[in-house]
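User: Hey, quick favor. My workstation is busy. Could you predict this chain's structure for me?
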Amino acid sequence: MKDNQHTLERDMPEVSKNGINVEETQRYIGMLEKSAQAQEVVAEFALGILNIEGSFGLLHLPGAIDRVRGVGYLIQAAKQKYGKAIPALSKVLLQGGLSDQNMYEALLKLFQDASEEGDLLAALTLAKLYARGNGGISRNATEAISRFVPILKQPPEWEEWVPEARYLLGGLYLETGVVEQGVNLIRLSSDRGWPEAQFTLATIYLDGKHRKMDLREGIKLLWKAADNGFPEACLFLADIHSKGSYDVRQNAAVAKELFEKAANAGNAEASFRLGEINFQEGKVGIAIGWLEKAAERGRPEAQLFLGRIRFYGVEGKFINETLGVELFAKAAETGSEEAKALLVDLCFKNADREWYAQIWSGVLDIFALTHQYKNGLVYCWNLGSDIRDAALHKNEVKSYSIGALTNMGMYANHYLDDGCGKGIPLLVVAAEHGNDARLQWTLGKMYLEGLECKKFLRIGSQNKPERNVPQDIDRGLKLIHKASEGGNFSAKFFLAGILLRGELEKKDVPSSIKLFAEVGAVSEDEQVNRFEGGYCERVCDQECAERMEARRILGKLYYEGTIVKKDLNLAKEYCLSFYYSSSQEDPEIVYYISMILKKEGGEYSKWLKIAADLGNLGALDELLGHHGDL
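Assistant: No problem, here it is.
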């Protein structure tokens, strides 16, 4: 399929991202199958990934995935020495879960043959399988050792795999009592910069196990592992500097910096420790941010700590009693005995509160309590007489502060999340009279679509439907414009889409492009690094779907030049910024980059290969020699 056949409408915000429809997909798959029958290796690889993962670029498998069939295609590609096949099959083997034992045997034979022919990844995969005991192989440390040893004798061009092999083999030697050789291998791997080896060797010196204790060398190795981005090393060093242990002088500033490095690498313990540190320093807002990350990563201590802040507040601030109890419940479910006891105590002491009574009613144990909590929370209507009056009597709204309106929005969201319309009066007051862009966006979308609350109150004997939101497009658009002006990304992105398509409002391409550019702009908190070729690699520090999608849309608009004036410089800027900052990979964007670089006379072949591997049909056409027929 040629590049110009990809229509712009598919990429608009309101359109499904499924891309090619089922009929087209089946046709493309059929053509790929014909190519695979002719032993065209790119087609074999594409069909292998499609059947294993369910998708390949824009192609989506119409039926259920068939991993065995997919592996069969990849084996065919591997036999033709296609470079991507062995890495893909290695992933399958290490993950395990194939239902066909015969396929396991075929894979193991393939990897054994590839290993004997000098494929180091195949040899390393087999060694890992024996070390771990998966992929149809029983764990066998002796066999694993015998397979790791030859890897270390490979010629220099395979050096990139050697540090990992040395580290794993060293660990096996320690496990089997060959201490001296094990430590030496771990040291060699450490010297080559393998962070796990540096960390392991550091603990050996710090604990005095297998080697004479050497605190200075241990700390030095920890720093090397931390500098290489190993989060456990960062956490260990942070703890050392925080306590002043292992002959290291206490340094709270260094400890905090190291905790941040570990936390930014995804370490939940480090996030929790940062929450504690910032709370002790009186930086409650920052502490809440770190505690939320730790809580999301499943740390019960963080859930409990954050629950206390939200339930009881700090000097009268940060109070959200409902959210606090929700966090207590999560901590209890995660296993915190203190949270379980606290929830029980709160229920006994607040039996007069409607939502507490609903939680406690019929509960036989704490786990039933936390389960009931999720269903019972939406019935909390004890919001305080002043907030309730403000919600039900709009003429009194002006006497309430922005803080009170924001609190109304918080309570309203708890109701709305469970589909109950009781939160609607609160949301209307908070959104239309307050300045919370998020609430304005929420209510605006409701007015555009109309909302029928299908749930019923389950408290008492009456079952009455709650309030609905009638469709009111003018009112909805007005609120969405306010939300956009207030900085809400979702509102900006939505308006950009409807203005570009001329839906709901008059078509206004310049305003649409301006809004897309605001959403897709590179923010100050994005890191900018250099990478090969002189372009900028932008790494987003948080997930922001609208920002990434805006960059993708702008890249395609400026490349295609059908709606806005063609501008390949802007197209390249937006396409590259999307590629390097998004967790999603768009084969069409990569293909555009390759074509722009080709036009500029730059190195484009690697981008074309990436696009083909991601399933871009234009790139597949060229590589398969179909010249647009596929």
